[in-house]
Records
---
Amino acid sequence: WRSDYKAWPFFVVAAVSGMSGGILMVSAEADTKQESKEKSVKKRLIILGTGWGGISLLKELDTSQYDVTVVSPRNYFVFTPLLPSVTSGTVDARSITESVRKIARNKRKDIKYFEAECLQINVPTKTLLCRDISAIKVKGKEDFYLDYDYLVIAVGAQPNTFGVQGVKDYCHFLKEIEDAEKIHQSVVDCFETANLPHLSDDERRRLLHFVVIGGGPTGIEFAAELHDLIHEDLVELYPSLHDQVKITVIQGADHILNMFDERISKFAEKKFQRDGVEILTSCFVKGVTENELTMKDKAGQLHSIPYGLALWSTGIGTRPVVANLMEQVGQKNRRVLSTDEWLRVKGCESVYALGDCATIEQRKIMEDIEEIFKLADTDKSGTLSIKEFKDSMEQIKERYPQIDSYLKAKHSNDVLALLEEKLPRGKGSDAELCIEDLKKALCKVDSQLKIFPATAQVAAQQGEYLAKCFNQLEIGEAEEGPLRVRGSGRHRFKPFQYRHLGQFAPLGGEQAAAELPGDWVSIGRSTMWLWYSVYLSKQVSWRTRCMVFFDWSKRLVFGRDSTRM
Ligand code: FAD
């Protein structure tokens, strides 16, 4: 080794570099292994829907913990409360939409988005069947499958026609951005056609009769926007048609906005009366044809009402994918998926649902009601004690004082069906009386059972809640010590609790009504300013915030858009 001693530094360098190379290689290999381990360890979380629920979940979710995939036929989020403003041309459609890809990009994590519709959820295999429903597709490759570990269903709902004939073919709906744009085009079309020289007065009056079916917040807001568009912009552009324009609201209940405080619904009715908007309450549309609809009034009389444009806004129905899932998990014949207070779909593992497609059934209240039913069942004497029922209902009301602060007495077929089924029958007038009595009392409990109205506020809060749970899931699972036991199963998370932050009803003419927490009611122009500021602050991005602000300012200076493209 003597002859080679001068070469030792070379050997040392070679050895060190070899070792370090080895170390580097080993560490690189370790990194790759770690990465692939992470990849394989990361659970696949699929979110269906890019509406209020899906997007608020995505925004709050720690996406580094999961392999996140979003599936929705709509590659954008829509700020639905401003959809009625699109129908009147106050706000541009692009101003209230935000790209899902941009929202995902802002998370700076690898989130996959597929523009497709989920057709079927296969619960046992944890697989989704999805379809590309866009205009451009590769023939024979429209359908594909996705596997999930966790699935969040936030697909919302679709308009409900209640099986009334002709509604699908001839009425407008106001659910999507295209609906709002189509309505705007149709309103202007009605004016342009009515302005043609060869039409009779009757034909003109028909074309300029705008009918809104449904006196809930969407229908009323649309009627108010339409009134403003017509009276602030269109009458100036079509002066000869001024006298022939009419707006009618047909409402099944005995008041419009009946889920709001009575003061608001009365104020709205009076304001509409002053504005010349006709309100027909306790009336039901029985059928719709191309130019007229048939309506049954309070007295049961049928009337034919000619119309130029009819908007159907009576409630929401079940999406096919949700109906299919409900059938699989034994929730058939329901309108929405039933979840527990942790938003887990009953009867499915690792499947969550939120927003308009789901409802939480509060076990505790259910149990209490069950107790009352038991009381009826154990009544051996054959006569039902009305007093006992009344007392029990009072007890429930005492136990749940918040019941009153939820939706005002809303009728639930589910609860009533349960009631009719469980109460002993054929026990004479006492039983009937009792059913009536219970029906009234249960209306309030029912609102607690269904708990939440189908609103963006609920969907967004549920999305945030679920994101927090998912963010903590791993920590929660690694935690030592006993799990808290609540409801069905064991949980580390608090159940979802809805915070009602109030609701608005814009009534046109720069006036709005608001129902705020603590039974506060605010009505008038100042409330409209509150509405402007709240809806501006709630925008999903700075881009939409600026665009909406710009549209409102543009309307003040130049008026609304009245073109038809
Ligand atoms: P949505 O927001 O409807 O989102 C559903 C998503 O699922 C969409 O992206 C849809 O494309 C996608 N989807 C549908 N089918 C599938 C499928 N098969 N697979 C995958 N994805 C699917 N609420 C308020 O609180 N305040 C208001 O002022 C208000 N105003 C409203 C005005 C109008 C005109 C309307 C229509 C609604 C209004 N709402 C308001 C109600 C509110 O918009 C809804 O309650 C809310 O959108 C529900 O959120 P969601 O996430 O459940 O569903």
---
Amino acid sequence: MYLQRRTFLATAGSAIAAVAVERFGGRLLAADQLAVTKRIATTTDPPSPYNAVTTFNNFYEFGSDKGDPAKHAKGFKPRPWSVAVEGACGKPGLYTLEDIFKPHPLEERVYRHRCVEGWSIVVPWVGFSLGELLKRFEPASNARFVEFVTVKRPEEMPAQRARFMSLLPWPYREGLRMDEALHPLTLMAVGLYGEELPNQNGAPLRLVVPWKYGFKSIKSIVAIRFVEKQPVTTWMRQAPEYYGFYSNVNPGPTYSTFRDQASERRLGEFFMRKTLPFNGYADQVASLYTGMDLRQQY
Ligand code: MTE
């Protein structure tokens, strides 16, 4: 019901989504398009082909090759789903997927996405502002950070079954400072290209933080925690010399041991592009970091 399936032609908003889908990916309209009420393009770059966005993925729970998530996530069950809201807030509890998104009109947001591995894509996400969702849970004044946790289901996620040499410590965890989480660009996504999120892209609910490296955009979220201390994220735990808590896209020098981040390859393009500070969103977000040394705080 939340998808308002088959009603898309009846609403003006959906007509916008339908046009967008036709124009973007050359995709035929599916019968179950998400009803989108608003469309925001933060870039004039054309969206990446649907096939690139849905078959070249990082979702280590399904394997580390780029094609693994699309191949191995077919049996993953994104319904029924619930999210545990915990920690320093007025309304903790276990919320169903529907409780989570029903009050929020869905928007299409076209964002650039830059992976720390040096590739990038442009994605027409469908979702709503994370900040609007978090405010419903009434964060307490000592909630300075928000932690997010991905589902742990070894029976459906093959890489979580590895007995030794696990790729990563599971479950996958990420975090944001409260002002980053409340920033209007930060998106809770439920779809892309006008349709529900494919499993390999983080169904049924994933974060999208477009000015940070892609690994901050945690997939298939089952817990949201309001905490006082900066959480330890999966990649910080794995290799702190490479991955910091902030992980803002930064083509300049940092103390991170990671190789040069000055350029990137947009999937489907031949020539490299210059990587932009904050992935091109500096006007909107640089002020969040006034007074911080972003070489140290990478
Ligand atoms: N979330 C989980 N749970 N597991 C992961 O391995 N990979 C991250 C991020 N979220 C990852 C994750 C990385 S490295 C990137 S670049 C993006 O998801 C990739 O998102 P996409 O496959 O939708 O492009």
